[in-house]
Amino acid sequence: MKKSITLFFLLTIINVVSGQSSILNKQKSTIQKDSIKKSKAVAEVQENKLDSLITTLGTFKTYKKEAHASYYADKFNGKRTASGTKFDNKRYTAAHKKLPFGTKVKVTNEKNGKWVIVEITDRGPFVKSREIDLSKRAFMDITSHKGSGGMLVTIAVLDN
C-alpha cells in the first residue's frame, strides 16, 4: 500500500510538471487496483520523467542565458552519438559543444517558462550561432510554436 501511495505521489508531481492530466487519470485507476505488474508498466512508461523528477531534487546553476536551441532532425534516429549511445528522438537528451557527457541540464524556454531536463549525450551543434541541440521530444515539450526550428533558452547545469 505504501509503495502504491508513493508511486501515485510521484506520478502526481510528474503530471503537474508535464501538464498531462489525461495520462494521470488513466494511471490513477491503474494504481488503485494495486497490481505489481501494472505499477511496473506505469513506471516504465514514465521512466524518463521519473529520472527528470529525481534530478530536480538537486540544484541547478545557470550556465548561459539567451542561448539559441534547436533540435535534431529525424534522420539521426538510431545513429551513434559521440558518447557511444544510440540516439533516440523520443528521449530527453541533448548535444552541447563543451559540457561533459552525462551532465544533466535544465533547459528553460525564455518565452513561456516551460522547462525540461536533458542529459548531454552528443557533441554539437556545429553551427556557430547555436548553443544546444535538443532531442525532438524535449524541444516540442517546451516550445511555444511547434513549427519553429529554434528558440531562446536558459541553460542551467545540475550542481552536485
From TrEMBL:
GO terms for molecular function: lytic endotransglycosylase activity. Its EC number is 4.2.2.-. Residues 1-19 form the signal peptide. Residues 67-144 form the RlpA-like protein double-psi beta-barrel domain. It holds the Pfam family DPBB_1. One of its GO terms (biological process) is cell wall organization. Keywords: Cell wall biogenesis/degradation, Lipoprotein, Lyase, Signal. The keyword Lipoprotein applies. It comes from the Bacteria. The keyword Transmembrane helix does not apply. InterPro entries: RlpA, RlpA-like_DPBB, RlpA-like_sf, RplA. Lytic transglycosylase with a strong preference for naked glycan strands that lack stem peptides. Belongs to the RlpA family. PANTHER family: ENDOLYTIC PEPTIDOGLYCAN TRANSGLYCOSYLASE RLPA, ENDOLYTIC PEPTIDOGLYCAN TRANSGLYCOSYLASE RLPA-RELATED. This is Probable endolytic peptidoglycan transglycosylase RlpA. It comes from Flavobacterium sinopsychrotolerans.
